[in-house]
Amino acid sequence: MTNKRQMTFEANETVLCFHGPLLYEAKILKTDWRSLDPLDGEEGPVYLVHYRGWKQTWDEWVPESRALKLNDANLAKQQSLKESYPGKKKTVPKTSGSAESSDRGKKRAKDTSVDKEEDFTKRPEIKVPIPDSLKAQLVDEWENITKNQQLVPLPRTPNVVQILEMYKESKKDKKAKNDEIFQEVLAGIKTYFDKCLGNMLLYRFERQQYVDIRKKNTGKEDSEIYGGEHLLRLFVQFPMLIAHTEMDHDSINALRENLVDMLKWMQKNHKELILSEYENASPAYQSIVKS
């Protein structure tokens, strides 16, 4: 009789594991079989993984769909994802100056860099778990845009402003809707989106589309043009963004609770908020991007 609970991976095996839209090396600590989706009762294999070089607090149970065998093909996929995903670090060009001034400032700059790194590691850590179905959306989106050369049709309906309003209205409790922290979080999400979209939320293939759509919508903010697809990318970047703020531990916890709640709401309503099919870019657009 075929074992219906056959596991693809085993304890102590090193794998590549999706965390957000990117792949990271991880070690499987434990294996189990449990419910994957409480809404439809689906069950399947899950694995407790530890990401190499990450703190133990990031250990998590993941479904089999998020793990890949550690081989040359999947390592190449890991590198391809890393190179194409928006938000990767950019090299800061060095400024010209005399050798003397450069030498004088070298030690001071090094000391400042060490101080900043120590301050950063002492800051409260924020973890915003992305629901697995939304992670799958991010992976599919990467393939649609980078491999299939497709685009999210713009402007989107609902756009980010409308999505935030829909989320607000979903709160049955009027007190919750009018809560000061809740209002600040929604305003903060919109502000972060408008400031981050053009800098870190676009794939290279989407940048010409951004230029074109901005020319046609000069009186609108990005949050009035783009929708749930790009908003989801912002949630992936939030841990890094918040780590570079001066927020205290209590504020971070309050923000995290609201972000997690909104992600659950987006998961529940993803068919209404996020496109399942993108549009093919025209030959003319592809030609401009490649030139």
TrEMBL record:
Residues 110-122 have a biased composition (Basic and acidic residues). SUPFAM superfamilies: Chromo domain-like. The keyword Transcription applies. GO terms for biological process: chromatin organization; DNA repair; regulation of DNA-templated transcription. One of its GO terms (cellular component) is Rpd3S complex. Residues 23-83 form the Chromo domain. Keywords: Chromatin regulator, DNA damage, DNA repair, Nucleus, Transcription, Transcription regulation. InterPro entries: Chromo-like_dom_sf, Chromo/chromo_shadow_dom, MRG, MRG_C_sf, MRG_dom, MSL3_chromo-like. Residues 77-122 are annotated as: Disordered. It is found in: Nucleus. It holds the Pfam family MRG. The keyword Transcription applies. Belongs to the MRG family. Involved in deacetylation of histones, chromatin assembly and chromosome segregation. May act as a transcriptional oscillator, directing histone deacetylases to specific chromosomal domains. Component of the NuA4 histone acetyltransferase complex which is involved in transcriptional activation of selected genes principally by acetylation of nucleosomal histone H4 and H2A. The NuA4 complex is also involved in DNA repair. Component of the NuA4 histone acetyltransferase complex. This is Chromatin modification-related protein EAF3. It comes from Dissophora globulifera. The gene is EAF3.
